[in-house]
Give the backbone structure.
Amino acid sequence: MGSLPSGGYAIRIPVDMYQITDKTGRAKPVAFIWVDENGAEARVKIEKIISCVPMAEQKSGTVGDRYECLIGGKIEYIYYTILAPRKWFRFLDVTEEEYNDYYRLPE
Amino acid sequence: MLRNPRLRDVPMAVCGSKKQRHGIVLAANYHAKRYGIKTAMSSVNALKMCPGLYTVPPHYDDYLQFSGFARSIYSQYSDRIEAFGLDENWLDLTGCVTSLKQGAAVIHEIRERVKRELGITVSIGLSFNKVFAKLGSDYKKPDACTVISKENFKEVVWPLPVGELLYVGRATEEKLRRRNIKTIGDLANTNPESLKGTFGKVIEVLHSFANGKDMSMVTPTDFEAPVKSVGNSFTAPRDLKTDEDVRIMLYSLSESVGARLAELRKYASTIEFSYVNSDMTSHASRQKKLEIPTNISGEIADTAFGLFKRHYSHWPSPLRKVGVTGSGLLSIKTPRQLTVWENAEQVNKKEDFERTVNALRARYGNNIVQRAVMLTDRQLSGMDAKRDNKIHPVGVFYGGMSESWGVYQAAATQ
């Protein structure tokens, strides 16, 4: 099963993605809108796509195409989920407490 | 667990709606199974066995999607894939591999890919026939592969309880046990002639299964099984206690059966009514052959209601579930002999009316046109039988028999 670069806890945040869809139907992410903790929006450019493989990520429960990307000089994984409706996700490193708070168990 | 990954680490079960009396366990994770929780157990009992159990509703659309994703991985290894329900498939690897050792490597690769790409585990059995491949997929779980060869099947398969054999249900297993046939090996080594009186011709088939002589083919991916019957059954949201309750349910079910027959461009020449009583101690079905084959919901409902009145009007107990099935299907192009009481114009008018109502319902929902009686009980008439109709696994025998195919058969269970 896949793992995130940080190896720790991470939550997935859905993002608005600008993408190019090629002639074969393959999606290529170009840039996305990121909202920081102060609520400020910024357009984040994806500098390079290193690889794209189908992958499931257990900790966040994400299943889809995993894009290994260079963003701001760092390697990050962006996911394009396969379950309809398809969405783009970026991961945010969090503490265990924040992870448990985000993914709350049903009552 | 896709929506909430923390559910992987706690006892969890997918349960139907208690309000609609579908409150049974549909699936449970391995943490829950350790408490003895099993599929089809009531959710109330499941919570008693495991008070810390988390229950979530089913997401059928997600299951359908994942079933498709898994099949698209399987299709990269074989074009002969046969679905056996939502989460089981047979693959024919004959021609794709040249030995069982190669086949074993392939099934391990499939298992790893499904786990890596979809995040779900599968158990796979590889054998020289479908029945043993299925047994192999159930042999070790979760996330495992089992190879059953001509050399080892007596050691692996024969010690298993006879109830594990495909098409041996609880009733057959009980009857076999009473004759001291407890394992698949016992069945394999018993002369089927001595059992024919009790079990009929099917015992020969089960005997051949037990001896590894199943020769049914894996049907190709694009094979469409001919439809032999169209039916709907539904567990009522409350017990049915009066004729009126049953009539409302039968109208709902018949509207779905009629609409589906019309989509298939078929008439049914036989109508079956089935029921299960409220404490599930009694269930039966009754059939009637029609004078004129039909796909008109009113005629289907009237026939089903007539069967109910004939066989259950004494009401020994309330009913929990009723069903309607149309079989003996004919194409709508087949000429039908009318009776002296009807003429072709009347029949055509009824069919045009039915077609119009079906088209309106398809576009605007079931409630757009309803029989007045349905308005008298919204709880019973509120279900959408057509949308929620059951999907049965296609039988093992659909692909026919083969001597040369099926040398390497894999069965994968998600």
